[in-house]
Amino acid sequence: MTPNQLEETTEYLIAKGFDKPEIGIVLGTGLGQLVAEIKDPVEAHYNHIPSFPLATVEFHTGKLIYGEIEGKKVVVMQGRFHLYEGYDLIDITYPIRVMEKLGIKKLLVSNAAGAINLDFKKGDLMLIDDHINLQGGSPLAFKNVAEFGERFVDMSQPYDKEMGDALSKIAGEQNISLKKGVYASVVGPQLETRAEYRYLKIIGADAVGMSTVPEVIVANHLNLPCVAVSVLTDECNPDNLKPINVPEIIEVAGKAEPKMIILFKELIKQL
Question: Which superkingdom heads the taxonomic lineage of this protein's source (predicted)?
Fold first, then answer.
């Protein structure tokens, strides 16, 4: 990745009509319905955007969408990139750098995750309060990182407290149950063993997924305040573990998503 590549990508998007977005949004697995809320959308497919990685997962459609939600200019990533697809961490987080270069001042992230905390149930939403990076690398571990910002980034408060508090308040007002917890990010694509679920619980994880942490690290690198919500699609009880059912996970995500859309729309209104 070079500053010139970033420049070329953003110039292409500006020419497409991506005009000074204020808020960036990353949509997770099975969480694409928010795009229906975008007014006057302008789309750019990943495979047409210079220097952009391509989405390979079947339920990630692979486009950037620009438009308005609640009167604010937004740019939405419909389809994100994962380590398990063979991308490296620099590719995975490239879109965050692009959105920041386009002008976003806030980042909203969603994902589908498994509940490690057994007080949390399938279909619950969880505000990510902190995270554990188990992906074995960093999106900042490359030679010319200093061209893009500080090499050593403080992660004592990776998620913006103000936006998190606002989401909690909105959830209370809208009668939506919003848990709060620690998200562990693993490589995947295989799901965890019983022993791995026990390990995740011991180290303090409330939920586990295969995304989000790289994007959040880069948001912090760019001094971009961010907030993240997990839709909990399965319960990971090592003492009663059922074989994985991917269609069911997608279905649970789809059913819980309207609650997440309410939270994000109300937050966008306040930003």
Answer: Bacteria
For residues 57 and 47, what is the distance between their CA atoms, to the nearest angstrom? 14
pLDDT digits (tens, 9 = 90+) for 175-224: 999 999 999 999 999 999 999 999 999 999 999 999 999 999 999 999 99
Please give the Cα distance from 226 to 163 (Å, whole number): 8
In the chain, % of residues over pLDDT 70: 97
Mean pLDDT computed over 55-71: 79
Distances (CA, A) of 150 to 4, 147, 160, 218, 239: 19, 8, 19, 11, 44
**Strand 125-133 versus strand 63-69 pairing type:** unpaired
Residue 152 belongs to domain with CATH number: 3.40.50.1580
Q: How many CB atoms lie within 10 A of CB 173?
A: 10
Dist. CA 72–CA 271, nearest whole Å:
8
From the list 4, 72, 84, the residue with the least C-alpha distance to 38 is 72
Domain extent for 244: 3-270
The secondary structure of residue 12, as a DSSP letter, is H
How far apart are the two ends of the chain, measured CA to CA in Å? 31
Q: What is the mean pLDDT of the chain?
A: 94
Cα separation, 270 vs 28, in Å, equals 23
Answer yes or no: are the C-beta atoms of 228 and 159 closer than 8 Å: yes
Query: Total domain count for the chain?
Result: 1
Asked if 265 and 25 touch (Cβ cutoff 8 Å), the reply is no
